[in-house]
Amino acid sequence: MTASSPTAQDLPALPDNVWYSGYDWIGALRSGWDAVSSWGRSGWDLGCWPLVIVAHYDRPGCYGLCLYVEGDLDISAYPTREARDQATDRLAAYYWRYYQHGPTDLPASDGDLQPHHRGPFSWSRCPQPEAGNG
Questions:
Q1: Which whole-number Å values give the CA distances from 73 to 22, 45, 51, 94, 132, in the listed order?
Q2: pTM of the model
Q3: Which DSSP string corresponds to the chain?
Q4: pLDDT tens per residue, range 9-20
């Protein structure tokens, strides 16, 4: 692995894709791979479990992205978390459009994604209700 351009071969092995369902595959993830269930500020579904699953791997200098689609795997590596998350933004938008289950304000073009469409979900990103006067 070079510091600037990791490849899929630099990532830990993923489970064999001979499974009865994507849920089995998720359960077999090891070595730092984690399935990512939600994306964007409001935690919209990422993929369409158990048919379409996204998994991430994090190690400084080598950030992995695996797309599982009905048993087929597409694996890629990125030098930074930001680059990997940008690729995940595009996957999220594609599947939100395809399955029509994402943000109601999703633009037609990935280039027009807004900050609230992008990045990992966390509770700290959710809009906080205003305190009442009560």
A1: 11, 19, 12, 17, 49
A2: 0.90
A3: --SS---GGGSPPPPPS--SSHHHHHHT--TTEEEE-EETTTTEE-SBTTTEEEEEEEETTEEEEEEEETTEEEEEEESSHHHHHHHHHHHHHHHHHHHT-S-TT--SSGGG--GGGSSB--GGGSPPPPPP--
A4: 999 999 976 667
